[in-house]
Amino acid sequence: MSSTAKYAVVVAGGSGQRMGAKIPKQFLELKGRPVLMHTVEAFYQYPEKIEIILVLPEEHTKSWEALCNRYNFNLPVTLQHGGASRFQSVKNGLSAIDGDGLVAIHDGVRPLIDTATIRRSFEIAQKHHSAVASVPLKDSIREMSENNSKSVDRSKFRIVQTPQTFKLSLIKQAYQQAQNDDFTDDASVWEAAGHTVRLFEGSEKNLKITTIRDLMVAEMLMSLS
């Protein structure tokens, strides 16, 4: 396993609009540092050598560099400009990697990702070429129709998270497809290319920060750890 090259493409293209914030959500402060710094640091805590490609909108690059100076954040990353969509941003991030290996694609606003989850994603992707973190639903759900709704078995559904980890050469090929509105994440791109998606147990703590409430919960969880 250690001889296999490992990469992480961290995608951070949020605007913060749903937060009602004036700055992008990945730059909001969490426990004294921007959210994105916690995310990057989490991947560097993985004990094996890993190369991180950080995908940011071009207009956010100078802000990130200024924050790195302000917070004395020196962990090495390869900066890559994002695209008009998450699909294009991930594709750009993958294009920055030469050779083959395994790549974990992760949301920049999931700062509570832990080493155990990262390790499992690489181990499973090594065996099965894909590994997608997911957790079970807790609430009851209903399927909507035009004039009605019906109860469905929640045990048949999963909430999908990141990291979503793949054999690098195959996910690069998958991202050569034309963009499609059905591509809601990397697993859907992988599946559309004819590959099987392998799910594994993620973590309830691995939340995606999209609202002020999420930021408050993340702060609390970090204080408890």
CATH level 1 name: Alpha Beta
Total DSSP helices? 7
Q: By helix and strand content, what is the structural category?
A: alpha/beta
Number of strands: 11
CATH superfamily: Spore Coat Polysaccharide Biosynthesis Protein SpsA, Chain A
Mean pLDDT, to the nearest integer, reads 94
Strand residues, percent: 15-25%
- Separation of the first and last Cα atoms: 29 Å
Could you give a short account of the major beta sheet?
7 strands, mixed
CATH topology name:
Spore Coat Polysaccharide Biosynthesis Protein SpsA, Chain A
Rg value: 18 Å
The H/E string reads: EEEHEHEHEHEEEEHHEH
Spatial sequence of strands, sheet with the most strands: 5-4-1-6-10-7-11
Low-confidence stretches: none
In CATH, the architecture is: Alpha-Beta Complex
